[in-house]
Write a structure and sequence with these properties.
- The longest helix is centred in the C-terminal third of the chain and has 8 residues.
- Strands 1-5-10-9-6 form a 5-stranded mixed β-sheet.
- It has 152 residues and is mainly β.
- The model has no long low-confidence stretch (mean pLDDT 92).
């Protein structure tokens, strides 16, 4: 039976349409964020790092991170505008939330060391964040749900 193991909620400062989740031990990340940031699609996978493209240039987004024992049901409640899946290697079991200036000091606790994790990300409020970020620095308009579970 698939079980929700943990849920964490954060605010993320988005700049230049993106932020990232990467292995907390910077020495294990060959190319740390924001180097080579693509920000072309909702989720861009790099070695031990994933870049997340936002709808708005500069704003504060809300991020909910869930850790599951196995692949969660694909029917998440919410009005999601975009969805993507990928994998991330995380030897320490902890991911740093990275903003344009580097590590934000916020960490997603995966709960155990697991070499490879599946990741599913969903987002809402992208269009509104895009419009509002043209005239102000909105907060809480764009929301992300990021789900992790062991790969394989």
């Amino acid at each position: 039976m698939t079980k929700l193991l943990s849920r964490q909620q954060f605010e993320v400062e988005v700049e230049f349409y993106s932020f990232a989740l990467q292995e907390a031990d910077d020495s294990l990340v060959p190319i740390p964020y924001p180097e080579n940031s693509e920000a072309n699609t909702l989720l861009s996978v790099h070695e031990r790092r994933v870049d997340i493209k936002s709808g708005g240039h500069t704003h504060t987004a809300l991020l909910t991170a869930e850790v599951w024992s196995a692949a969660p049901d694909n029917e998440a409640k919410g009005d999601w505008e975009a969805e993507a899946e990928g994998e991330i290697e995380c030897p320490t079991g902890e991911l740093a939330v990275c903003e344009m200036m580097g590590n934000s000091g916020t960490y997603i606790e995966l709960g155990r060391t697991q070499t490879l994790w599946r990741i599913r990300i969903r987002c809402s409020g992208r269009e509104a964040a895009y419009r509002l970020a043209q005239i102000d620095v909105p907060s809480g308009i764009e929301r992300y749900l990021v789900q992790f579970w062991p790969a394989g």
